[in-house]
Recover the amino acids of this structure.
């Protein structure tokens, strides 16, 4: 799902702040059984509304069908911990304001469910709130895309995926759709031109049709839409910008990642089904030495939601970020080729990105489903709605993994208090190693 | 769910035998996406019909909501393996017939998805078919009950559960139901007298209402039944045998285990929700050194299906059986007090059991949700519909863990070819150590 929208509106006053919306205080799903008005279910779609989300994002698989991403049977890789108490006081200026905010204050202000900070591979900060615990998997939303994009870049690197080919070369079913004239690279960098609105604040936006097709939202009794992701994707039409041409500008649309996921499934087949979750397990999860299985939502055809269905523990998310920071070498093995990560970090066309109008992300670009800041530290991010993030700062040797359940989907609502905080923390660590 | 029904009817000729119904051959859920007629979904309830079950029982969490049972973050306990090739030829006489069948032949004849045999703690036989793999969790059905019964017996042993108390002492909500006049012990040994038919061959049997309330089967559009297990249980009425008295005879009814699960949740609360899955993880799963998480189906109120929702890998199921065989000591620790297991193995009233009319199980009894054979080897079992089983043979130092997807639910259909095979294997191992 979307990670940021080109809106400059500031968030409204929220009914409940971070501490007040703590799901343990509100009593969601507590009791034997929980009282009717404290139950969170898929059937009415309310699990996707704040403040129920503060419980639901840490319990998705108890609400909808999911598939395991195995970590294998070995012990977890060591994640050394030396907590520091100087981070909470580190402060930054809120974007678009002259207000100062400390790292500690930002935790509740951003409805954080958990945050882990690694410095030189050591956990220096780890904090949880609400429904999230170290053992529990949280919804990563579009952070999923950076996993899938990395897998895609690995396939380009090993030659099994040609980024110059048109999509129908791999997925003939998409010939009649907008993807029929797009290249693999355009899909990977989201420079496709699609008639597909990704605005969670608009109930008529196509992202909601897509979510219903994928089974995340309940299908109404009179539902006449598509039954699954791969029934939906062939219906996506060309957008009307740039005379219907692809490759002219960055436009963030979740369906691109689902198309990339489809391609990855198909090219990996070798005569049998190799699902995306199996690939994520084989190439990444089982090699990182994760503590927990990951899981991913599936639609009624068993198709994983490549655009935003991944759930991981926070500590495992941090492991993935640390593997990226270390050039792909982690847990005593090369997991992602270093050249793949170097390529991602170089980013893509900044003018393409600028055309999307993200005022809070000046000079950024988007490459293989990663957000590249091009800042003075060469930081890059994986981003998901409601505040999911991996922030890798190579210069500061810092990785931040963060899960949250902000009341509003678009990251534009928490970028002002999170992006400067990440950078301030990085500078603090450089100055106070 | 039921493990055996008192029917003596022999199975009909099946449309497809074990090899023909292999889900890989039938192509269920294969392809990107699978063709419409190869999809298995919850919405039409067909995932519960043979031969789709041969895929579905190994993929339940991709179809319905489930909850994790954590194994913790340590490495798996060692499960030494020295495979023997002499077991397949071991043969037995089929119950109620003079036909001979070998262990190897019984595998397909019983629609086995996987079987592991431990002898003195060493895997001497391990075989999988169809959709099941060593890493994958399979539906244990009523084998779940033996886990919950063991937890219950542990609580009786430590004094936190009084088996002589009436059920409303712990669950006041059940005061007006048949359970209002039953003791905890009667529930644990299933000598309650309930108006509740557990016959999967009868579409009007109460077991199906129970399954719909629990969300395993889709609720029809015009559904007017109970929304969850704990809404359903208070409606269970007294049966009309024994002048409405409990404690007069063994009657196998899944709802008893759901009541025990409810009690376990409530007495463990200590001011907060401690769900059954958390208890199973804390007291059993995390201590066995399991290879995989287990998982359990949940209803719309987040209540785990204590009567039959557990899913485990086959190797982990074998670990649990081996822990029982070793008097509760496994993975370098006492997991279940030895006295608890001794108590279970003593069994219960054989006359109570005989009154239920299981012609294929003469002289057996049922204690704390375990099936006690009282045979010459003092073997005992956990049993689930469609052929799920743990068979512990103390004298032969043998444990069999078995998962299957037999076309018919009731174990009466595979007892004739499995029970004598288990005993023959035990005798073979004693004669050929």
């Amino acid at each position: 799902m979307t990670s940021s929208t080109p809106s400059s509106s500031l968030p409204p006053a929220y009914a409940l702040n971070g501490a007040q919306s703590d799901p343990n205080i509100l009593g969601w799903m507590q009791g034997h059984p929980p009282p009717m008005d404290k139950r969170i279910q898929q059937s009415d779609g309310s699990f996707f509304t704040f403040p129920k989300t503060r419980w639901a994002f840490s319990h998705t698989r108890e609400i909808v069908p999911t598939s395991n991403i195995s970590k294998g049977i070995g012990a977890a890789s060591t994640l050394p911990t030396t907590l520091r108490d100087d981070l909470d006081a580190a402060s930054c200026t809120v974007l678009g304001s002259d207000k100062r905010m400390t790292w500690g204050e930002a935790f509740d202000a951003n409805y954080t469910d958990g945050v882990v900070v690694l410095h030189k591979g050591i956990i220096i900060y780890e904090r949880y709130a609400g429904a999230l615990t170290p053992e529990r998997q949280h919804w990563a939303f579009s952070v999923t895309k950076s996993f899938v994009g990395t897998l895609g870049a690995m396939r380009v690197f090993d030659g099994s995926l040609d980024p110059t080919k048109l999509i129908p070369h791999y997925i003939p079913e998409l010939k009649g759709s907008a993807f029929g004239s797009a290249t693999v690279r355009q899909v990977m960098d989201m420079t496709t031109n699609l008639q597909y609105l990704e605005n969670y604040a608009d109930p008529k936006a196509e992202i909601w049709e897509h979510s219903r097709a994928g089974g995340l939202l309940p299908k109404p009794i009179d539902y006449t839409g598509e039954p699954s992701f791969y029934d939906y994707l062939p219906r996506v039409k060309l957008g009307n910008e740039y005379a219907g041409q692809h490759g002219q500008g960055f436009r963030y649309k979740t369906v691109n990642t689902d198309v990339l996921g489809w391609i990855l499934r198909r090219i990996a087949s070798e005569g049998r089904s190799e699902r995306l979750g199996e690939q994520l397990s084989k190439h990444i999860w089982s090699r990182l030495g994760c503590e927990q299985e990951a899981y991913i939502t599936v639609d009624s055809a068993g198709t994983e939601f490549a655009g935003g269905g991944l759930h991981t523990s926070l500590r495992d998310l941090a492991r993935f970020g640390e593997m990226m920071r270390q050039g792909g070498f982690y847990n005593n093995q090369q997991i992602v080729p270093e050249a793949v990560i170097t390529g991602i970090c170089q980013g893509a066309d900044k003018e393409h990105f600028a055309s999307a109008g993200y005022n809070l992300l000046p000079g950024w670009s988007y490459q293989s489903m990663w957000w590249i800041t091009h800042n003075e530290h060469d930081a890059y991010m994986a981003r998901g709605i409601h505040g999911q993030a991996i922030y890798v700062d190579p210069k500061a040797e810092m990785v931040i993994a963060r899960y949250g359940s902000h009341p509003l989907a678009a990251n534009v609502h928490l970028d002002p208090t999170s992006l400067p905080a990440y950078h301030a923390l990085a500078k603090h660590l450089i100055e106070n190693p």
In short: The first strand of chain A starts at residue 66 and ends at 69. The longest helix of chain A spans residues 415-431. Residues 23-146+275-431 of chain A form a domain with the Beta-lactamase fold (CATH 3.40.710.10). Chain A touches chain B through 46 residues (CB under 8 Å).
